[in-house]
Amino acid sequence: MNWISNYVRPRINSIFSRREVPENLWTKCDECGQMLFHRELAANLNVCTHCGHHMAIKPRERFKALFDGGVFTEVKVPEPVADPLGFRDQKKYVDRLKEARRTTGEKEAMLVAEGEVGRTPIVAAAHDFAFMAGSMGMYVGNAVIAAAERAVELRRPLVLFSAAGGARMQEGILSLMQLPRTTVAIQSLKEAGLPYLVVLTHPTTGGVTASYAMLGDVQIAEPGALICFAGPRVIEQTIREKLPEGFQRAEYLLDHGMLDRVTPRGQLKDEIVTILRLLLREPAAVKGDLPAPEAAAAPPETRAAE
Predict the structure, then answer these.
(1) Which of 103, 147, 194, 227 is the most exposed place for a label (fewest CB within 10 A)?
(2) pTM for this model (two decimals)
(3) Using one digit for the tens of pLDDT, what is the confidence trace for 180-237?
(4) How confident is the model at residue 232, as a pLDDT?
(5) Which of 114, 118, 191 is nearest to 158 (CA)?
(6) pLDDT in tens, 140-191
(7) Strand partners, 92
(8) Which CATH architecture best describes the domain 56-304?
(9) 272 by DSSP, 3-state: which?
(10) Which residues lie across from 162 on neighbouring strands?
(11) Separation CA 302–CA 304 (nearest Å)
(12) Is residue 73 within a helix (H) or strand (E), and if so which, with residue range?
């Protein structure tokens, strides 16, 4: 037996010919620790197939699942002045924005779009928590206002998906001023007699909770979502008492009257269609009103609004 040919050479070849395996093929569930294959996780809308834990989902992926056939049109949002305060902590604010845009591929922390859901025309807005924790700065304020104005212009309902860590400290008082600005924008919807639905996702906190996220005609939440102004740790340290199990989670708030529904992500589309048709006094959705499976599987098409 030639050990060099039969052992050494194959061993060397195996070392130098190893294929690189992508690192993002598997995702570990934060709740149960199960390893989930990326395709199965994406097909289940980033919900753990083992325990049902709802993970973060990007606004574009959410909209592809929400709108009929995955087709939607982006609504243009006015861009505010960049870094109005010249803010700097460990990094310059402009550098943090560049890094967030590079890692997320998005311009800012909110995406606004229009399209049809169950053949019901709507305008939708969604936070991107991956973009600086979905924090509410001037751009997000402009996005909510643009969504409300577009909904009034087209006479369509507005559906908003919240996921934010609160106001953006790098914009100081200018960030806090978005609370009254967005509140006035939502009031214009109500004065026009148009429905406003809010879907609160994990986590929704701070100034976002104190403004447009809690002004919906119907308040829906995803299971297990943390919804609060101040977090549970801050409250425990302040009152020096142990909080109840599940405090400030969606199910707890539903039991105490702060929410109308807690709906799993896979059922959200049907729930939204049903509620919107009720509020618009339209006939209930029938099977023919929903997109065919072939249409839902078609490649999504998006285009920027003129």
Answers:
(1) 103
(2) 0.85
(3) 999 999 999 999 999 999 999 999 999 999 999 999 999 999 999 999 998 888 898 8
(4) 87
(5) 114
(6) 999 999 999 999 999 999 999 999 999 999 999 999 999 999 999 999 999 9
(7) 88
(8) Alpha-Beta Complex (3.90)
(9) helix
(10) 200
(11) 7
(12) strand 72-74
Are 250 and 200 contacting, i.e. CB atoms less than 8 angstroms apart? yes
Tokens 């919906």 belong to residue: 216
Read off φ and ψ for residue 79, nearest 5 degrees: -90, 130
SS3 assignment, position 184: helix
pLDDT digits (tens, 9 = 90+) for 111-135: 999 999 999 999 999 999 999 999 9
**DSSP three-state, residue 161:** strand
Task: Name the token pair of 115.
Answer: 């399209």
Alpha helices in 240-297 (DSSP H): 250-255, 268-279, 293-297
Amino acid (one-letter) located at 183: T
Q: Determine the residue type at 41.
A: L
- Contact, 53 vs 47, CB < 8 A? yes
Q: Judge whether 275 and 120 are in contact, CB under 8 Å.
A: no
User: pLDDT tens for residues 251-260?
Assistant: 999 999 999 9
Angle between helices 268-279 and 59-66 (to 10 degrees): 70
